[in-house]
Amino acid sequence: MSIDVNNESGTEVDEQAILDIARYALTRMRIHPLSELSVIVIDEDAMEQLHIQWMDLPGPTDVMSFPMDELRPPTKDDEEAPQGLLGDIVLCPEVAKRQGEEAPTQHSMDEELQLLTVHGVLHLLGYDHEEPDEKAEMFGLQAAIVDGWRGERGVTGPSPAPTVS
Questions:
Q1: Could you read off the pLDDT of 73-88 as tens digits, one per residue?
Q2: 3-state class of 10 per DSSP?
Q3: Which residues are CB-contacts of 71 (< 8 A; sequence separation ≥ 6)?
Q4: What is the pTM of this model?
Q5: Most exposed residue of 25, 59, 99, 161, measured as fewest CB within 10 angstroms of its CB?
Q6: Dist CA 58 CA 53 (whole Å)
């Protein structure tokens, strides 16, 4: 799996953890091992510009996903996933920091960025949270992936609650 993490934000983030959790999520979702993903970390001003340009919404947001080949996870156990370009996930550490501090189970900026990375991966794979049933499925899967990754790393304590909108 080819995953590039490019930090253009000026904020120090745990790039290795972002890379690791993205790889874990894609493996868990059975995405072809030759698929490609890009994760870009940017500051609030750049995120606000993207948010206005692509969503027509004011202010910066936490995560945005830009799918390329619209890959989907295999639906059957014996089905092989196609390979391709997943797309780009764009993260904003300043927003992630605030969200982590304001969450019911307060957590670090890096923990929030990890959660947002999984959230972005799921969006690239076609998951959404507009409708209640979609939200339940996506956020349940998101929690299972974050908990599984943390469990493999031996991290204890409560999982960050979903703070993405």
A1: 767 666 677 778 899 9
A2: coil
A3: 31, 32, 35, 81, 82, 84, 86, 124, 125
A4: 0.89
A5: 59
A6: 9
